[in-house]
Amino acid sequence: MKRSSEQVWDEYLVLNAQLGNQAALRRLIERHQAALLVYIQRLLGNEADAQDVLQNSLLSCCRQINRLRDPARFRAWLYRVATNQCRDWQRQSYRQRERQVALDQVLPTLSAEENPAEDDVRSILIRLPHDDRSILSLFYFEGFSVKELSFALDLSPSAVKTRLYRARARFDALWRDDEG
Fold it and tell me: Is 0.85 topped by the overall pTM?
């Protein structure tokens, strides 16, 4: 498998971070922070919560970087950490406050340049179960391969394909309901 220069650079930074180089760890975080925030916002649908979960995810990453055995899998591992943090945050939120936030408050406002269909996609994504949102977001928005999803979600490749199929079907059903 051919690796990009970005992947090689991440591996180099991970190895240095594991040796205690704080500058390398900071650089890793800087490289992935913005994209990770977008992913977390997509899962949670709320910018304030996403900022908190991002901080928790990055803190967990810093604390556990030495546990990562394969530096080539850093990006997938980081997204696994974030996905788990989102799941924990949602569980905690539901226990603390059993209220339903209105959909228009959850969805980020779209600028005038954006395609109105994006609003439809976001409104459907936020209505899907967490596992469906995360797998669809990682595959379509973050560009993860089935192999990367397998590692990030701790599933077999066949389980990833099955979940993708089912998540697409649930998404499609909601899409059709909204159109009809």
Answer: no
